[in-house]
Specification:
With 303 residues, this protein is of the alpha/beta class. It has 10 helices and 10 strands. The protein has one domain: Rossmann fold. Keywords: Hydrolase.
Length: 303
Amino acid sequence: MAMTSTPNSRTPGSGLVDAGDDVRIHYEERGTGDTVLLVHAGLYGDWFAPLLREPALDGHRVVRTHRAGYGASPRVDRHLTIADHARHCAAVLDRLGADRAWIVGHSSGGIIALQAALDRPDLVAGLILIEPAPSPSGPEGADLGERVVGPALAALGTDGVAAAATIFLDGVCGEHWASLPVLRNGDGARAQLMSDAAHFFDDEIRAAMEWHLDPGDAATLARPVLIVHGARSPERTGAYAETAALLRDMLPDARCVELADLGHAMPLEDPAVVAELVRATVAGGSGAAPRPSRLGTHRAEPH
């Protein structure tokens, strides 16, 4: 395992781990306590970068990765499935000597987290799924495909990655997303996003569209799951709330929570609120909707 240390006290460990099959995954970690693994969404490897710095998570061992092909993790010359990405997550936890971890997955990272829990339940204490990618889905998911995914892929062929990424992220996050990467992560964020987006459209979008959660498998997932969606997301698409409701009914120990004033870009919109939600959920030890002291912007869904 390759590992290097950094002088930043909030990220005392970083490096590359060998995830097998010539895949190397870059990680950063800080802290001690219950392990929390952050699995980022598609298009941009630093959705979760601000959470690593949030004081709410000071009492935990927080591990953030760049998934294969993103950021500092080298690309590979073959198609990677959601199961491949899930295996890489497990390999990081194994190589770092982590016991059972809470996995926080955003968008496509959410379905990777689900797959990891199914494949390696020994490593997973619970899941926090932040607007997981629309699978399972219904009419709202189909509408998202027609209005956003299809046009983004069409633009990719005619106008390139930047145009495709803009259409996609405008469609799921709202146009305000464009200022958030630089606001939270600095001047190099835009260039990294474009590089990461190229990988997303080259390979990961195919993996997400291929993935399917079998109802029988879902019924065996005996881990607490908190499914998070943003109250502002339906301004762009109802697909994430639809998927949250479907997953809640499929999984044996799942709850939903809605965060007011936030949308699909919530890890960059308000990392402090997201970090506090993670802290409270892990502290509670279950997927029940948390009641943390600093979260005045959430309401639990009725169920």
